[in-house]
Design a protein that fits this description.
One of its GO terms (biological process) is cellulose catabolic process. It catalyses: Hydrolysis of terminal, non-reducing beta-D-glucosyl residues with release of beta-D-glucose. Keywords: Carbohydrate metabolism, Cellulose degradation, Glycosidase, Hydrolase, Polysaccharide degradation. Pfam families: Glyco_hydro_1. The chain has 491 residues and is of the alpha/beta class. The protein has a single domain, classed as Alpha-Beta Barrel (TIM Barrel), CATH 3.20.20.80. An 8-stranded parallel β-barrel has the order 1-2-3-4-5-7-10-11, surrounded by 6 helices. The chain has a 3-stranded mixed β-sheet with strand order 6-8-9. The structure holds 4-nitrophenyl beta-D-glucopyranoside. 4-nitrophenyl beta-D-glucopyranoside (PNW) binds next to loops.
Length: 491
């Protein structure tokens, strides 16, 4: 490490490379609304957010769904204009599987549904507009909106049959958009899908292994089966891409994984090992097979036969199946040994140091505090451990003020500015001082939007959305990021 901090040399000598991608991220179900438009069929998130009213169950805090969201199915041109006004040169968004493939009609003899041309046309228009505006489209194929039909047919991610359906969908997207799209993300956050969807049951499809403990009192195998099938679906789609698209159309393809930075609570060896286990359970579970060809030893040891085996044939497809390391990260955690929950590697995580101080400012959500040094260390950890260029595909903050204030004060999101100031400088330090090849930074999110189980009560946007009118109001954080990246990307 040449210098320990950027303040050792003048700031203007430090720049990100000219081709660095700076922009914002969103996801289809969180912004689009219009669930039935252009021939779209329901996903598991539509079902999850509309439970039978007689049951009295609510899966979102405010009881609301993504039916309207930020109405971006209709307002996408306004969204692109916003991106432009924020100086973004890239946009990460996801496609809705059930708008692109026609799940309203039965499958053909091959068991696969046909293309829904209307849906393809919709996304084609968005992608063309982005390219016209000089904004690089970075497309996520799967951001949690599994076709309900496939969940009903064979259990969705619980069955290996999903690999065939996912690859079919991916092929359709590569063929339809691959002339313009050169950055593909296969799947967003397998850990969240597996653990929150099939372990804790707080996300769709709401399956909780707590209801289904094995005789030893362990959590069930479902999250690990789901995780396994996600890895395979990703890898077989990439195999097809490389064999059929890469040579003619070019482009990079990879997966996005999510993690916090895990630090031992103190130097007690038990806690040092616990932090390693936390990484193995959150990140290594997916990253080790994909970048190294096998599951982490600590996970195999903890789960025994409940962790599916990666067959030699699959392992050759899985190993090396990501051109880059897509990273979503929001915070850091202090880790202590203990805790029964296998899904978290049997550790306890927190933000409070032994002396009682906190890592940083608390977000509106319980799981985030501001700790920029952890971001720099995480970028170093990922690069050293997995050896691939890093695309930061999400990073962001839900400020308390967003939930408390109303217009016009709410756009002065000082806490979010503090977060982005710290994290952007940490990114720069990782790149210019530590030599970590970071290729992109996508802030989460372009807009306040449907924040999954939090409904609309949690706002991550750099743009305030008045949901009654869909009016968009740029927050101070949008101005901050625009200026920061203007100053720190080389010409
Ligand atoms: C990510 N956790 O989800 C998703 O990719 C986004 O869709 C989401 O809106 C954003 O982060 C903010 O939450 C996560 O509990 C959800 O650790 C939960 C966790 C992490 C990421």
């Amino acid at each position: 490490m040449a210098a320990s901090s950027l303040t050792d040399t003048p700031l203007e000598t430090h720049k990100l490379p000219a081709e660095f991608l700076y922009g914002y991220a969103t996801a289809a179900y969180q912004i689009e609304g219009s669930p039935a438009a252009a021939g779209r069929a329901p996903s598991i998130w539509d079902t999850f957010t509309h439970p039978d009213p007689k049951s009295g169950i609510k899966h979102t805090i405010d009881g609301l769904s993504g039916d309207v969201a930020t109405d971006s199915f209709n307002l996408w041109k306004d969204d692109i204009a916003l991106l432009k006004s924020y100086g973004a040169n890239a946009y990460r968004f996801s496609l809705s599987w059930t708008r692109i493939i026609d799940f309203k009609n039965p499958p053909g003899e091959d068991g696969l549904e046909k293309i829904n041309e209307e849906g393809v046309k919709h996304y084609r228009a968005i992608i063309e507009e982005l390219v016209r505006e000089g904004i690089t489209p970075c497309v996520t194929l799967y951001h949690w909106d599994l076709p309900q039909v496939l969940h009903d047919r064979y259990g969705g991610w619980l069955d290996r049959k999903i690999v065939n359906d996912y690859v079919h969908y991916a092929k359709v997207c590569f063929n339809a958009f691959g002339d313009l799209v050169k950055h593909w993300i296969t799947i967003n956050e397998p850990w969240v899908i597996s653990v929150l969807g099939y372990g804790q049951g707080v996300f769709a499809p709401g399956r909780s292994s707590n209801r289904n403990k094995s005789p030893e009192g362990n959590t069930s195998t479902e999250p690990f089966i789901v995780g396994h099938n996600i890895i395979l679906a990703h890898a077989y789609a990439v195999k097809w891409f490389r064999e059929n698209v890469a040579h003619t159309q070019g482009g990079a393809i990879g997966i996005t994984l999510d993690t916090s930075f895990y630090m031992p609570y103190n130097d007690d060896p038990e806690n040092v090992r616990a932090a390693q286990r936390a990484f193995a359970s959150r990140l290594g579970w997916f990253a080790d097979p994909i970048y190294k060809g096998q599951y982490p030893a600590s996970l195999k040891e903890m789960l025994g036969t409940r962790l599916p085996e990666l067959s030699p044939e699959d392992a050759t497809v899985v190993k090396g199946s990501s051109d880059f390391f897509g990273l979503n990260t929001y915070t850091s955690n202090l880790v202590q040994d203990g805790g029964a929950e296998e899904l978290y590697g049997k550790v306890k995580t927190g933000f409070t140091r032994p002396d009682g101080s906190h890592l940083g400012k608390q977000a509106h959500v319980s799981w985030i505090q501001i700790y920029p040094p952890g971001f720099r260390q995480l970028l170093n950890y990922v690069w050293k451990t997995y050896g691939k260029p890093v695309y930061v595909t999400e990073n962001g903050f839900a400020a308390k003020s967003d939930a408390l204030l109303s217009l016009p004060e709410v756009v002065h999101d000082a806490d979010r500015v503090e977060y982005f100031r710290g994290y952007s400088n940490a990114l720069l330090e990782a790149v210019v001082l530590d030599g970590v090849p970071v290729k992109s930074y996508f802030a989460w999110s372009l807009l306040d939007n449907f924040e999954w189980a939090d409904g609309y009560t949690t706002r991550f946007g750099v743009t305030y959305v008045e949901y009654a009118t869909q009016a968009r109001h740029p927050k101070d954080s949008a101005r901050f990021l625009k200026q920061w990246f203007e100053a720190h990307i080389a010409n």
